[in-house]
Amino acid sequence: MTAKEILKMGDPRLLRVAQMVEEFDTPELHNLLKDMQATMKHAQGVGLAAPQIGVNLQVVMFGTGEHNPRYPDEAPVAKTVLINPVITPLSEDTEEGWEGCLSVPGLRGKVPRWKSIHYKGYDERGVLIECEAKGFHARMVQHECDHLWGILYPMRIKDFTQFGYTQVLFPDLSDTSED
Ligand code: NI
To answer: Does the annotation mark 144 as catalytic?
Structure first.
């Protein structure tokens, strides 16, 4: 398992619609997840989508575990692998919140997202996952799944006065190196 290079905004591979995974529990899929895990850990990310390491498949992982220095104020989200995801908003309500992305290093922006969602998909063994989420958890799922449709968070920003360098916006944040 190796930490892979994370593609950065401007790379056309981040703008593709990813393909569905058709076979579960294969060595290739397990290896992809190991690579994604190593890459995310190395970058101290809270989420990663396969297209970010150049693999055009509908695979995302997200979750903070107990504590993440990049988002110290947010409630923990269980580490989750989600394949072929489908997101359904539970209401039309949206809210704005700060996001960063490992493919857009050094920046953060305020992005409108659905407040509460239902999502479903599969884990790496093909077991159905169904969940309801709100707030930061819902935002994280929407952000990661957007990578599968070729959308990066700056493409959703409405107010560009709320977009800037992490170190300027959040000078007290302990770790802004990779963000
Ligand atoms: Ni991202």
So the answer is: yes
